[in-house]
Design goal:
Layout lengths: L2 H15 L5 E6 L4 E6 L4 E7 L2 H9 L8 H6 L3 H4 L5 E7 L3 H8 L5 E5 L13 E5 L10 H21 L3
Parallel strand pairs: 3-4, 4-5
Antiparallel strand pairs: 1-2, 2-3, 5-6
Length: 166
C-alpha cells in the first residue's frame, strides 16, 4: 500500500466514518502535513508512514536537519504554536501497527491502522482503525491553520477539475 492510497482511505474515514469532519486537505500547513482534518472545533493531523525506516526516521529529524516538527510539537514557541494541530496521528498499514505503537510510546501521538482492503467509494466502508487515541498537543483551536485547510481543500478541488478537463 502506498502513501496515496493511505491518504485516500484516511480522507474517506474522516469524512464518512467519523461524522462531522467536513474539512479535509492533504499536503497543507506549515509542516506540509500529509492529511489535516477539522470539524470546526478541533484540527487533527495524520502523518502517513509506509515503512519501518520511514517511521523511525521521522523521530530522528531535528532542527539541525532542517525539520523542526516533532521538537516543535513537544515544546512549541509562540510563533510555531499557531501552526499546531490539536491532535496528531501516525497512519500506517496494519503490518506496521505494533511497531508504530512502540515508537509513539510516551508521546501524546496516536496511531491509526489502515486496511489494505481494496478501495471502494461506498460511504459505509471503513478502512481505518484508531489503535491508540491521540492526546492533546495544542489545546487551542487555531483559526489560521483551519483557514489553510479550507483554502487547500478548494485548491485540490479546482486542480482535480482542471485535470479531468471540466
Amino acid at each position: 500500500m502506498n502513501s496515496s492510497e493511505i491518504k485516500t482511505k484516511l480522507l474517506h474515514y474522516w469524512r464518512f466514518t467519523r461524522n462531522g469532519y467536513d474539512y479535509l486537505a492533504t499536503e497543507v500547513g506549515k509542516f506540509n502535513s500529509d492529511v489535516l482534518v477539522s470539524n470546526g472545533k478541533e484540527i487533527i493531523e495524520c502523518e502517513v508512514k509506509c515503512s519501518r525506516a520511514d517511521l523511525r526516521n521521522d523521530f530522528k529529524k531535528t532542527a539541525r536537519s532542517g525539520t523542526l516538527k516533532h521538537s516543535v510539537y513537544k515544546k512549541p514557541s509562540t510563533y510555531y504554536s499557531q501552526w499546531l494541530p490539536n491532535r496528531f496521528y501516525f497512519a500506517v498499514g496494519k503490518e506496521l501497527g505494533e511497531y508504530a505503537l512502540e515508537m509513539v510510546s510516551g508521546t501524546p501521538y496516536g496511531v491509526i491502522e489502515v486496511s489494505s482492503n481494496p478501495f471502494s467509494n461506498r460511504k459505509r466502508d471503513s478502512y481505518c482503525l484508531i489503535v491508540k487515541k491521540a492526546g492533546i498537543i495544542q489545546p487551542i483551536f487555531r483559526k489560521k491553520l483551519y483557514r489553510q485547510i479550507i483554502m487547500r481543500e478548494s485548491s485540490e478541488l479546482i486542480r482535480l477539475r482542471i485535470k479531468l478537463g471540466q
